[in-house]
Amino acid sequence: QKEVEQDPGPLSVPEGAIVSLNCTYSNSAFQYFMWYRQYSRKGPELLMYTYSSGNKEDGRFTAQVDKSSKYISLFIRDSQPSDSATYLCAITGNQFYFGTGTSLTVIP
Amino acid sequence: NAGVMQNPRHLVRRRGQEARLRCSPMKGHSHVYWYRQLPEEGLKFMVYLQKENIIDESGMPKERFSAEFPKEGPSILRIQQVVRGDSAAYFCASSPLDSSYEQYFGPGTRLTVT
Question: Which chain A residue shows the shortest CA-CA distance from B40?
Answer without folding.
Answer: A100
